[in-house]
Amino acid sequence: MHRTLLRLIGILQIAGGLFGLVAEVERLFPWGGMLDMIVALIGALLFGLMLVAGVLLLEHHAAGTRMSRWLQLAQLPVIGTPFLSYALHAGAHLNLAVIIHRPLGLAFGGHLGSWHWLLAPAGPHDWHLGVNLVALAAWLILRWKRA
């Protein structure tokens, strides 16, 4: 069962990394503002690393497990504030977020076969802070990977 879950994580990283990398490279053209280009380059780097980490994970390399752990940690937070917004996922996400507004609210959403990268100096009026539950589960599985 554990090996099957590791394969699933690898496959999701490969698929999400590939499609995210293509999307970020497309975002670079036509040349936009400097901030947009920097964010797209960071996204392309992250998705490229996810692609490589997924391949290494499927090949049972220790480096693939280490890279995947770090990349899953990068996918954990979902932040939306008027000052900074951040979200990253490759392959799948299941987000649980608290919307800090009067009254407080919960948001829950997810998707399989998706990718997303957001880093922005501004965001929504209402704050929301959350966690990607798929990334959390993947990190836990990778954390307790048997040799």
UniProtKB/TrEMBL annotation:
Keywords attached to this entry: Membrane, Transmembrane, Transmembrane helix
Transmembrane segments: 5-25, 37-58, 127-144
Highest rank taxon of the organism: Bacteria
Name recorded for this polypeptide: Uncharacterized protein
